[in-house]
Amino acid sequence: MKPDTFAVDQHQQISIGGVTLAHLAKKYGTPLYVLDYETIVHRIRDYQDALNELNPAGQAFYAGKAFLCQAMAGLLEQQHIGLDVVSGGELYTALQAGFNPDRIMFHGNVKTREEIAYALNAKVGHIVCDSMDELERIEEEAARLGCLAPVLLRITPGIEAHTHEFIRTGQFDSKFGFGLGDGLADRAVERALDLKHVMLKGFHAHIGSQILEEDPFILNAESLLRYSLGWNQRRGWWPEVLNIGGGFGVRYQPGDHPPRLTTVVSAINELLHGLTPQGLIAPRTFMEPGRSIIAEAGVTLYRVLVKKEVPGGKRYVAVDGGMGDNIRPALYQAEYRAVIDGKVDQADMETVTVAGRYCETGDVLMKDIALPVVAVEDLLVVFDTGAYNYSMASNYNRVPRPAVVLVHQGQDYLWVARESYQDLTRADNPYVMTADEYR
Ligand code: LLP
Label partner for 92 (CA 20 to 30 A): which of 9, 196, 415, 437? Predict the structure, then answer.
């Protein structure tokens, strides 16, 4: 879809957050990531309102892997949403921005000893444990630091969601978590309940990303609840928290119909009250949305620099960015929609393939899409690039990564500066340069 504040004036000039894209391109250069404040805040509130309907109230944790920088962490803190981090780097970014560690969920299928200690020292609210090796490592680090580690165990429930196989995680042969089917989850729970420095708070299961159905989420919640019931009978243990992960899809294409959050949440409410044994409090439901909060808030602006027709009649339009700032088409065959600033309603259309600037045949942003007849110097606006674009960007070909700008009520705020050539060489050691020095 488009950012909520997307508007087109009588000259077909596009603005977002009350700022024209032409102005942003001129001020900051291209390629440029633009994020709309209102869209982000609306999506956050949708989750908070829906989860508040639960009894006990649930909590949303934004998945920082979709997009994170210090300013974003600051905005999230202001909105009192939680934050899911998956590395020391994401944790550092959040803490630098003054994010409340209580609302941080520390994730990842491989956490180093240093990262575990960092999370424990920072007193993050929860650590999601992914393997037996890690469970022992958490126990050791918590013992060394003299604290109790609040742990959720990541369960692999055996739910196969219909999404690209690279972003599917809930099936039994996944690299993530403890399988329910193979007894690994049982061993992990037994062990966690016996460890002195681990406090088992509940379970987590994330089944995949860009899921467009409701049922897999409901099934996921149900399987975690039923699994908990078994433990209540066996050892009298009952979870405080069930975290059903992220994965809500967004509308990249007109045929994509995202799941309804309110439907999922009310089904979970019924499950919680139908299944929680008498005398016990239903666990709190946590969700970890990434894409569904930030994808639609973002657009990327590119300048068209080349237009060519190759033998066979195929028309290429080449822009000043590509797989370095958006790897998703090359990695997942992801499809995007775009328009041209100043030509939004133009009737004269053509079919073009939009190629990037990187030295890779696969660096194609959009294949055979219909655009108004394109000219060199046009400003191409690609939609829904807020999630997993900047966060997966690289310096391939030593191209500096673009800036990120937030727009709100007619103002623009630089969130992340464009990298310079100096940034590219910052970590290079310039003193080891000639072959002679190796003798
Ligand atoms: N929680 C966990 C444990 C996750 O692994 C993920 C995403 C999320 C939450 C957030 O999922 P979301 O709501 O954003 O779907 N790079 C891929 C997506 C990878 C998702 C990885 N995990 C892409 O560009 O499509």
Answer: 196
